[in-house]
Amino acid sequence: MTAVHQFLSALLPRDATGAHALALRSAFRAAGWSSEIYVEAAHDELLHEATYFGRYPGRATPGDVLLYHLSTASPIAELLAGRAETLVLDYHNVTPASFYVDWEPETARRADRARLEAAALASRAALGITHSRFNADELSALGCPSTEVIPVLSGMGPEHWRAPRSEAVGSARAAGDPGGDHPGGDHPGGDQRSGAAWLFVGRLSPNKAQHRVVEALWWYRRLFDPGARLDLVGSPVTPAYVAALSAFVAELGLEGAVRLHEGLSTDQLRRRYTEADVFVCLSEHEGFCVPLMEAMAFGLPIVAYRAGAVPETLGDAGLLVDAKRPATVAVAVSRVLGDETLRAHLRRARQDRLDRLDPDAARSRFVEVLAPLVGAPLPASDPGPVPAFAGQDAGGPTR
Amino acid sequence: MTSTPTSGGTTRTGGEPTDATSVAGPQPDAGPQPDAAAYLAGVMAEIDAEVARRRASGELPPALERELDELFLEFSPVGTRGSARLRETLALVDGAAYVDTAVPVASQKAAGAYVKRGIRKATGWYMNYVVHQVTRFAWSVSRMLHVLVDHVELLEQRVDGLRPPDVELSVVPVGSASGEWWDGIVVEALAGVRGRVVHGDCGDGALVEALVGAGVDAYGLDPHDDAAEAAAMRGLDTRGGTLLDHLEVVPDEALAAIVASGSVQWLSPSERDRFIALAASRLAPGGILCLHSASPIGWERTCPPVLADLAPGRPLHPETWEHLGARHGLRLRGVHRGGTDDRIVVGDGPALPEALEALLSVVNDRLLAPGEYLLVAERVQ
Amino acid sequence: MKLAFVTPRYGPGVIGGAETAARMLAERLARRPGWEVEVLTSCAADHLTWKNVEAEGVSSLNGVRVRRFPTSSPRLLAYFELDGRIRVAPAAASLEESRRWVALNGPMCPGLVDAVAGTDADVVAFYPYLFATTVDGLAVCPAPTVLHPAAHDEPALYLRAFRQSFSGTDGLVYHTRAERQLVESVFPVGSQPQIVLGLGVDEPNPPQRKGSEVLGLEGRPYLCYLGRVDEHKGCGMLAEFFATYKERHPSDLALALVGPLSGPAPGHPDIVATGTVAEPDKWDVLRGATAMVTPSAYESFSLVVLEAWTVGVPVVVNATCAATMEHCRRSGGGLWFDTYASFEAVVDRIVSDGGLARTLAEAGARYTDTYYRWPALIDRYAGFVERIAARGPKARLRPPRLANVEGGAAYVREH
Fold it and tell me: What domains can you pick out in chain A, each with its CATH number?
């Protein structure tokens, strides 16, 4: 039986890559392929969903296609480099080490190693799947002969946010129902009434620049709405950054106004999206940014900094700022909340965007693109020498 | 404005040509409709304009924006401060140079704790003495390292610049803008400006005074300490020092305007580069630079000979300042020309022969007089 | 114009450069028509223990309204631990730690900070930078503020906790140009309104007795030192240098150390230690000296140098002290030394060359008259304060108030 197996470093709940992999597995199985997930480590909650990658060699079957989710350094790369099966890379992009260099040298070293592993695997992959042109360009530059751009599958399944298009679906808040959602419709954020709720979803990490969102909130409260609040959803990557962020929030006197959440369930996350008025993303490096897609699905107006793949994912469905100046972001947020013409425009743009990011279509596309490889004959020649990176330390972060 | 080429989908190298339209399926990077992009671009431009307006009105003090940026760095680890890693490593050495006398005392056995504490008390004075010596030693080692770093930095600066010697202050006339043709223009250009305005080489402070009188928050600097002192005695905020040195210690975007006259004309080329870069970054967005200079020809006529010869640099044409400024984001607003006009006018004045004679006399003196000199000097007993 | 001063201590008995200077300014400004001056300060008299000794509440002293607030805790031993650790690398200490140091250094006066937050003064002046009252007061003050840093190149200056005080104040008042240069090199305050003010020198008491008579030196020439006689002020070094000089150049030259003694007097036959003396005697002793010597490397202004010049006496200063060197260089009224050899050469020259001594003293007197007479100085300061008031308070980041450090043993001083 033909098989497409996925490999990833860690399978974690409430994690974009993990959700993507699980969704893909259902898609592959629905296509009639056998599909397992092999990991270096899995969270307790998902232990039953994955197998330790070291077991794969004992279970390998000729004709297997191996799909590796590449976003961090992992011994899986070494294993896959030495195997003859058809290799497909799902390149989620590796955050450049430069973002971590001053915060967590260890994480920076890992990032460098991950880049080396990506370079080594790119040239031996039959296909590189990415979720943005931005990533595809990087992967091609690393030597991947062929790339395909397909949107990421979100952990929020269709039942959560895909619904018949309708304008101005009744306000969940007005109805007093916190669990409601606004598929593509307009989120009734209203104008600059007191207590605008800002939201950003993403790991707490220097490249996601949550501290810049905090700065922008400070200006917004000073210029427009002293009651504005911010919810930051995401688990910490570097403890130093979280400590600095919390101290910064305290220093600015925003302790009551800024809340950090981690480990939210899907329902809790959905609630954050439905209760928010605006989504603000000032991240400095993104390969796709699933939360942007989710924010659009929940009908949130978006203000985002133009970096990485953010413009591709967002398109016209939000305001893109070219400078990170917090004051500009604050004025943009006030505009987006108060200007009805703009809101209507963004509403229409969101519809378009979501169509293009349609998860059903994405799922089909994955299957379509992999089908020629599944069941294809093995490459005739020897897979080549094991790439040089194996067993070698990256030797320190690059600047 | 927005992103990316319209051909989404597969890229293959060296293989079959692809037809974008035959590749069905969702693409996150398809191009936007032109009018949508234009509309959003318009909105962003309006947002930028509003930010600029709020800055100009004082609601968004740039100094505060900077402080906010720098505040976050206060909480970040030492390394994020950017350049000068040498200094940061020193800070780590400094931090390790302290020795703590308090020996940890807790022990599994109660008796053990008592014994340890007893020893500590009894030998405490001795430990303190030893630690004091060690700490002082460590402190002096780290001080020595600081001295070394200072020297290295100084050497780097010297090598960088290979600066020509500064021209002596005694050779530089003290500037005064009062009664000059250009001080009124500066006052008009800066009327209504909100924020701090500095006049470099303010001399007797006349222009600073005029600006203050026009409601501008102006202060001045002059390399002649006594001139600056005298102006300060009159109640002006003037200080001794050069504009270039001062701009080094001013934070980014802290100034609403800079007026530069005097020594800005004869900065050495590398100092001039440094000046224009600093001026641009220390000005708040929308800030104004007024620069008074002799033209190259005018310099020949009006500058004291010793200064003209010894100064490390020469005045530039205004086009050159424009060119240099453009590299750092300074956009030219206008050039005003002035100064004493000695032109000989032919026509409604003296008759042609007299005019020609006057002209000839000037040309003779300036260009055709004997072009060599012999200098004789004697050593004083 | 209503001006409020905030200082950690205040009063005629207080010995401390900054607090004394604040009092001199306050009392003279209070005499200005149209001016109202009040001082917000603590009930403590001793800056090492912060023990409340003065009565809480409002009183009046020489035309100045004085409001005293109790300190909320005495100095704790924890201060010394933290200080020892931080002082080696002050810039590397975290913001939180440096804030803790400021709170431990004190004085913590919540009542005073509340009063500043609710002040109706047109301008509030804070003096000096180092204390919790200044840091908290500057953060909460609604009116325009002026900071008199009285800064030295000391480890505390580099603590992060002080950055917001300096960048958030509306105006800076320095004692010397050297202080301004120091502060501008540490904090980004170059473009802020500033004035180099210094202090004014009083009229000397009229001559009563000969200086050598007061000292019991029977007409012998002498060098004099004025101030607290203390190791930290360089008196030990001065005594040693003088003793060596006397060995190598025997003469009847004596050395007078005039001021409160903090230890036993040096036991040299040619050194006279007077202890504290009355004002008239101090001027008499100064007047009769061949030269006045300031061996300290840590003066922030050194009023005594100006005082010497007003009575026609040249000065000899420690070359490593920026403040006294600035006076000497700007005025041409003094000589300096940085080793024993230069000390010997300078003393020799001044003792033997009366003409030089006179020239130096005259230059110094001219300088003092130009810049450091009270009436002109107060005019300049008043003008500066008025301009600050007119400009209005600038927008500033308001950091949270310092957290009082509780618990732990108090520091107690035995006398």
Answer: 4-151+359-370 (3.40.50.2000), 168-356 (3.40.50.2000)
